[in-house]
Amino acid sequence: MSDRVSVTPTPMTNDAMPCCRVVTAGDPYVGRQNLSYVTGLTGQTVGSRGICMTVAALPPGARAKTHLHREIETAIYVLEGEAATYYGDALQHVALARAGEYVYIPADLPHLVINESSAVCRAVVTHTAADDQAGIELLPHLDTIIK
Questions:
Q1: H-type helices in 16-139, by residue range?
Q2: Where is pLDDT greater, at 30 or 3?
Q3: Domain extents for the chain?
Q4: Which residue from 76, 16, 24, 87 is spatially nearest to 48, judged by alpha carbons?
Q5: Residues 6+ apart with CB under 8 A from 63
Q6: Residue range 32-89, pLDDT digits in tens
Q7: Distance from C-alpha of 145 to C-alpha of 140, rounded to nearest angstrom
Q8: 129/145 Cα distance (integer angstroms)
Q9: Measured between alpha carbons, how far is 56 from 121 in angstroms, rounded to an integer?
Q10: Using CB atoms within 10 A as the burial measure, which of 10, 30, 43, 104 is most buried?
Q11: What CA–CA distance (Å, rounded) separates 134 from 127?
Q12: What pLDDT sits at residue 74?
């Protein structure tokens, strides 16, 4: 029989013993790119150094600020609904992801996420950084390209 450990998110220290950690979804917050998240696995909650995982919720019409993640890759799994990711130097490309699909966004790629549907979109979002807000560069000069 295995031990089940449930952990309330608490800051980790470098001298903590390595272990598997289970955390309960934390508080909601709005990121710098104007998307709503629920705190999950981060450097602060589990002591990760190169990965974080949160859940994003985009109500109908939700729109991020155009941004990129400097030297950080992003992987997304859509749980429910759909969202469009416009990407490229002039947001000239679009990837529409629906429930059950994955999205990969390379590091340093300008992108804009919009829920253009009439239903909520929920997605698991991971980054190759301990903090999902690390490396974000807002690109306001691209915000008006997509109406």
A1: 43-46
A2: 30
A3: 28-142
A4: 16
A5: 34, 112, 113, 114, 115
A6: 999 999 999 999 999 999 999 999 999 999 999 999 999 999 999 999 999 999 999 9
A7: 10
A8: 29
A9: 8
A10: 43
A11: 9
A12: 98
Q: Token pair of 6, please?
A: 């449930």
CATH of domain 28-142: 2.60.120.10
**Contact between residue 53 and residue 26 where contact means Cβ atoms under 8 Å apart:** no
Token duo for residue 142:
């691209």
Q: Which two tokens stand for residue 132?
A: 């999902």
* pLDDT at residue 59 in the model: 98
Distance CA 122, CA 77 (A): 9
| CA–CA gap between residue 133 and residue 35 (Å, rounded) | 11
Cβ atoms < 10 Å from Cβ of 46 = 23
